[in-house]
Amino acid sequence: ELMLTQSPGTLSLSPGEGATLSCRASQSVGNAYIAWYQQKPGQAPRLLIYGASRRATGIPDRFSGSGSGTDFTLTITRLEPEDFAVYFCQQYAGLRCTFGQGTKLEIK
Amino acid sequence: QVLLVQSGAEVKKPGTSVRLSCKPSGYAFNTYAIHWVRQVPGQRLEWMGLIHVDNGNTEYSQTFQGRLTITRDTSARTVSLDLRSLRSDDTAVYYCARDGRGYYFDYWGQGTRVTVSS
C-alpha cells in the first residue's frame, strides 16, 4: 500500500508569514495524483489542490502545490487567520487511495 | 451550489448494522461517483468505497469487504452506506464525498457521527 508521511506534525506561524507543508510517499505517485485538503474543527475537509498543482474551484492563489515522484509540497503564502487548520495530503494513484496523517498549522 | 447532505448521528451496539444516507444536490445526480470516507478519532482519513451513480457499480476497500454495501436510489437521488457487524473501532465520523473525476474528492457532506458502544 502506498503510504504518505506528512511533515511537520505541527507548524506554528504568524499571520502574514509563509508556510511550507511536506508530503512524502513510500513509492512514486504516478501522474502526480496528489490532492491536498484543509480541515477545520467540526468541519468536513475542503479540497484545495488536485493533480499535485491544480487549484480547486474558489481556492485563493496564495495556496499552491508542487512536486513529483515521492515528494510533494503545499505552499501557503501570506497566511490569513482563516488558514490555521489541519492539512491532509491524499494519493489517488494506487489501487486504494490513502491519506497522510495531517499537519496542524497553528497560530504562533 | 453543490451540496451533499448526510443523515444524522447514530448510536449503535456492537454486532448491529447502520445505514447512512447522503443526498447530493446542485448538479446532475447521475454524472459523478460518490465515495465514502471515514475519520476515526486520532487516525488518518480512510477511504471505504464508492458507487458509480450512473450504473450502480461499486468498489470497496478490502478493509471492509463483506461488511460494507453502498447503494443508490436514482428516484430519490440518494446514496446509502450500510455497514454490518459493527465494532467499537467503527466509531468515527463518516463522510460522503463527490468524485472530482479521479478518486479525489471535490465536495464533501457535513459528516455523520457513528458511535458504537455497548
Provide a descriptive summary of the structure in words.
Chain A starts with a strand and ends with a strand. In chain A, the strands form 2 sheets. In chain A, strands 2, 4, 5, 6, 9, 10 and 11 form a 7-stranded mixed sheet that branches. Chain A has a 4-stranded antiparallel sheet with strand order 1-3-8-7, with no helix packed on it. Chain A is mostly beta strands and 108 residues long. The model of chain A has no long low-confidence stretch (mean pLDDT 95). Chain A contains no helices and 11 strands. Chain B is mostly beta strands and 118 residues long. Chain B is globular. In chain B, the strands form 2 sheets. In chain B, strands 2, 4, 5, 6, 9, 10 and 11 form a 7-stranded mixed sheet that branches. In chain B, strand 5 and strand 6 (58-60) form a beta hairpin. Chain B is 0% helix and 50% strand. Chain B has strands at 3-6, 10-12, 18-25, 34-39, 46-51, 58-60, 68-73, 78-83, 92-99, 105-108, 112-116. Chains A and B meet through strand 5 and strand 10 of A and strand 10 of B.
Q: What's the SSE pattern of chain B? A: EEEEEEEEEEE
Strand elements of chain A, count: 11
Average pLDDT of chain A: 95
| Helical coverage of chain B, percent range | under 10%
| Residue runs with pLDDT of under 50 for 5 or more positions of chain B | none
Note the main sheet of chain B: 7 strands, mixed
Structural Rg of chain B: 13 Å
Q: Cα distance, first to last residue of chain B?
A: 40 Å
- Computed over alpha carbons, the radius of gyration of chain A is 13 Å
**What's the count of strands of chain B?**
11
Query: What shape does the CA trace of chain B take?
Result: globular
Whole-Å distance between the termini of chain A? Answer: 36 Å
